[in-house]
Every structure is written in C-alpha cells, then in structure tokens.
Design a protein that fits this description.
Blueprint (H helix, E strand, L loop, with lengths): L16 H4 L3 H16 L14 H14 L5 H6 L4 H5 L6 H18 L3 H18 L5
The structure holds protoporphyrin IX containing FE (HEM).
The site of protoporphyrin IX containing FE has 19 residues, from helix 3, helix 5, helix 6 and helix 7.
C-alpha cells in the first residue's frame, strides 16, 4: 500500500503558502531586496517619508507574512491593513506602480521559488499593485 494511505484521515495538515515557500526568512529576503531597489530609485525613494527605510521594510514584511498565512504581527501592531487608505497620502500613478513592480520582480526572481509558487506570488503582487493606483496619468 502507498505509505500516504496509512496516515490516519484528518491528521495530514495542509501547509500554508507561507510555510511552503520557507516562512519568515523568505519574506524578509524578498522585502529586503525590494527596498534595496527602492533606495536607489529616483521616483520612489522621495515618496517614503522616513529617512530610514528600515521601518517601512518591517511593515511590508509583516504585512506579507500575515497575508500568506504566517503570524498576525502586522495587524497586532497596525490594526486592519486598509492598504488603499494608507496609500492615499502618496501619488501612486502608473509610473510609481511600474517602478514598484520592477523592484519587486527582481526580488521575487532572486528567491528562486518553484515555478508555481513564483506564479502565485507574482499574480498577487501585480493585482495588489494595480489596486493601489490612486492617481491617473
Ligand atoms: C503600486 C505602487 C506602490 C507604491 C508607490 C507604494 C508606496 C508606499 C509608501 C510610500 C508607503 C509609506 C511607507 C511606510 O510608511 O511604510 C507604503 C506603505 C505600505 N505599503 Fe505600499 N506602495 C505600493 C504598493 C503596495 C502594494 C502592492 C502593497 C501590498 C502588497 C503595499 C503594501 C504596503 C504596506 C503594508 C505599507 C505599510 C502600511 C502601514 O502599516 O502603514 N504597497 N507604500
């Protein structure tokens, strides 16, 4: 008999996407690489109000960790994400959207995930970025 059939029903726990891709370390690597791109970006860098990008990096990492099924530290600290509202003070136009995704693309590729995981993550990020645009042009 196939070994998997010997496991008592109901005891096989589904792993979250967060766990499947390597947990906290993977999301920290992703966001760290992303902010290395932002730090050098002439359009995006001036949008970040704080001199130090560290706290912004922490917020995005904790948000993504929570979104994909990891600990809920983001909401424990920041409450409901309300991301569109939190982006309202910033001009998120087509150019900002494109720059954000450009740096995210580099960061995602460097993770070296399986094709399926990469596709799932990228689909979400492109969808989320499009929904954050709040300024035409
Ligand atoms: C489309 C282009 C985007 C631009 C130009 C942009 C820009 C910004 C800026 C300037 C901030 C403020 C920095 C801070 O205080 O944390 C911010 C915060 C944040 N962004 Fe974005 N963002 C974009 C898309 C996204 C997307 C797609 C997500 C989610 C997948 C996201 C998640 C966040 C989070 C979680 C925060 C911190 C919110 C908080 O708790 O205050 N952003 N973003």
């Amino acid at each position: 008999m196939d070994r998997v059939n010997e496991i008592r029903r109901g005891t096989l726990q589904e792993q979250t996407f967060y766990e499947q891709v390597g947990g906290e370390e993977t999301f920290r690597r992703l966001v760290h690489r992303f902010y290395e791109g932002v730090a050098e970006d002439p359009l995006l860098r001036p949008m970040y109000p704080e001199e130090d990008l560290g706290p912004a990096e922490e917020r995005l990492a904790l948000f993504l960790i929570q979104y994909w099924g990891g600990p809920t530290t983001y909401s424990d600290n920041r409450g409901h994400p309300r991301l569109r509202m939190r982006h309202a003070p910033f001009t998120v136009d087509r150019a900002a959207h494109d720059a954000w995704l450009k740096h995210m693309r580099v960061a995602v590729e460097e993770l070296g995930l399986s094709e399926e995981h990469e596709h799932t993550l990228w689909k979400y990020l492109t969808y989320a970025a499009a929904s954050m645009v709040n300024t035409a042009g």
